[in-house]
Amino acid sequence: MAGYDALLWRALHRVLLVLAIGVLGLLLGLGHAPTRTDSLLGALVVALVVLPVAVAVRRMTPVARSNLRQVPRHRPLMAVTAGLLGLVLLLVTWWTVRNAVLPGSLSPLALALVGVVLAAAAALLHRAPRRRR
């Protein structure tokens, strides 16, 4: 697992950046009344998130891919960050589908923004200098 930490964190940081810009852009750019065509922007954000994850997983060896199940036990902060980002992606996907069918609500995006902030805090904890005893 140790050899792929940098690759996984880099992918998580890219996903965090895309989701932060995407969610904030959707919230600020859509105003108070999103239309059905605005769902295309949500679909673009989802696609831009899936791409770095697919590239990171593809670069890993088959053994490393099978070891991804060990991440929660050995790298809990990475698992928390990935889980929060997955939840944000789910909320953006939910908003995209819901807005395509029944436009007008931004509430899933507001929840997604809270998730992005929490994921950013978890990612900052990873970058914080550790005290040596």
Summarize the structure.
The protein has 133 residues and is mainly alpha-helical. It contains 6 helices and no strands.
Structure description:
By secondary structure, the protein is mainly α. Helix content is 77%, strand content 0%. The mean pLDDT is 87.
Tags for this entry?
single chain; 133 residues; mainly alpha; elongated
What shape does the CA trace take?
Answer: elongated
* SSE-based structural type: mainly alpha
What is the strand tally? 0
The biggest sheet, with number of strands, parallel, antiparallel or mixed sense and barrel status, is: none
Which regions contain 5 or more consecutive residues with pLDDT less than 50? Answer: none
Give the C-alpha Rg: 16 Å
Approximately what portion of the residues adopt beta-strand conformation?
Answer: under 5%
| Subunit organisation of the chains | single chain
Sketch the topology as an H/E string, one letter per element.
Answer: HHHHHH
Distance between the termini: 25 Å
Number of helices: 6
Helix residue percentage: over 70%
- Mean pLDDT across the residues is 87
